[in-house]
């Protein structure tokens, strides 16, 4: 049993290297041996698939292997027990999609896996091809379904359902799952740090605009948790609320309906959000020349946006609605309880909101 | 949809133009067009593959200069790639153009291009998802699988809500949108992650104003079910059959073909084959499904001139149907009359009771009852068109052919009065129509043989010569296969159950089979064995004779 676990180590390392740039050092014999190993592991998987004790031992070992390899390799893809059953296919897919694979090796691989010529291992080759077909099929299926979802053009009629598009929702779920897995590792560092690291990596990676990242964080907070004790969502929330600037970017990048839903679920977010909006409103100045409220330094924080946000909060669930109303009335009272336009931002807000 | 029938069988140019027109399938119209042409595209790709298989790359490019372009364009079309079969053929075609040892610049270039195509298909390097996936440590496969599941579940939720709302809220899914959605699902029919969506679509639209779902979609689901590439709940499958008749017909034909092509099914295997097809259960709940299935059975039976396997299939099917009716969970079970509207009730009650549900001592009385009711039904001139009545009642008898086999078994040992009735039954089974007195003639010959065999029944020392007259008589009257069958039944039952039959068994069978009836005899023996086993008749002697004959035939074959 111990030797099997050792070999599992070797297999994971092998696959990790197959995905990395180190594969440029490989030669044909290495490829040959790699596939032999993969065949051995597939056979192993077949034998132990139904044996729960061995299955669990292997799965546990994989957890710790994943963790240590993650630290070694910059970008590492985790191995699960199910993958062991398709080892050859996984290996083939990894090698073929790795740009660092030397040309000679990729030529040999392509020639070898020609599905139309059946050599002695003809039967085997079909199953490797099946794995590749499966990958391509899922990619295409997601595109087809995204077209299908777009059939109904307007999303305005949809209330709290489908707040997020499926891609972002999935990304949020996957981030959460990753976080939970990492937290389960015995040698994981302090949990706050984990969130910091992960989110920092995701943020840095965003070549596109920041609102994608914000939406992903929103998705994480709205996702269904697989295990409630892990507290991963709370950590994420804590991370979000810990930095004012971060929170502001978040609130600007995420649609109002989502923010309203978040305010409903998480009281701490509700307070922070209201605080943010209050600060924002307070920093607005009334421009007498055009009769409108403006923000001095940032023109994107305009009046309409502010009103919209409050409106979504007021149209939300009862708790949120009441909290917002109370806050607004209290602020109006503090300011002097004026009923005239142009003096207190709170009065004007309430007037504008009543009109809608 | 109008141009379906005019597409030429093999036209590279046509598909090339189509592929250009589709582009990457970014507009609704092009996406729908791809999905609707998917089946024909699959056939075409299969044809191209057959041709490319035997060519090397240079020859292929010379013969089909545009094929590379076509394949390339199709690789970028997600509707084509999403369907497993078309993607597989596409990849196979691509790989055919790959040269293991490139001989010239064209082949080298082709190799590079193919590698890039395949890489494009399986990895996400071009899109922004790639780095996200890598940071978290997933593969693109897992990511896309999760995205698909998420999309499927949101569509399913919408569909379910839309259907439950009914009168109160405006339906989000208009019939047009449902139709378009069903077209989109055509390539996804074999995708297991999309199965909940397929089910939701099929259960959603029940309400009446014509069929909202696309016929191509229904056809694709039917085909996928037959090839066992998708698993759906039973009620959903039955719903599909009810709304799209060709799918029901295909399942029935597939069952018949399977049974006929493999003639050595054991009765248990055939029974499980029948039950797995879900047809008995569906028929029990919906009599008109049974009517359609039965019509197909009848046609095949008549076209095949009474093929034995088809008859056995019908008998086992009827048995499964009756069991499904008796033990099924449906609250309101249709009466028997709904399934067999043209047969009189007494006959139905008598025949549809299976021999295993009747104690063996009661068999003779029951058989008499059957014969009497049958005679009444058949000779009843008032029964709207007696020819029709005759046929329908004979047909019912075919469904319940087990009783005919029992009758043959009981005949030799029976008393004089019963024998007459049993003989009539057997003769009627093989010659329902007595226009040219065939039945009467057969009856007379069979009576003579039977009387002769009865005399020899209890004698312990028999030799071949004793049976010679009977065998000759049988030979003389066996111009038709039906008659031959009857006589074979008589002789076999005699050999199995008589006192001295075992000794001469092999020789008699040898004489019977010189007319090349080998298969028929084996099937008859298998049937006899099944009856001995299932009706609990502890007749060791018969068992031994049976085994002896079976081995003998096996050796001869």
Automatic annotation (TrEMBL), chain A:
In terms of InterPro entries, this protein maps to: FANCF, FANCF_C_sf
One Pfam family, short name: FANCF
User: What is the protein's species of origin?
Assistant: Huso huso (Beluga)
Give the signal peptide as a residue range, or say none if absent. Answer: none
Q: Which domain of life is it from?
A: Eukaryota
Which protein is depicted?
Answer: Fanconi anemia group F protein
UniProtKB/TrEMBL annotation, chain B:
Domain of life of the source: Eukaryota
**Stored InterPro entries:** FANCC (IPR000686)
Query: Which Pfam families does UniProt cross-reference here?
Result: Fanconi_C (PF02106)
Which protein, by its recorded name, is this? Fanconi anemia group C protein-like
Q: Which organism is it from?
A: Huso huso
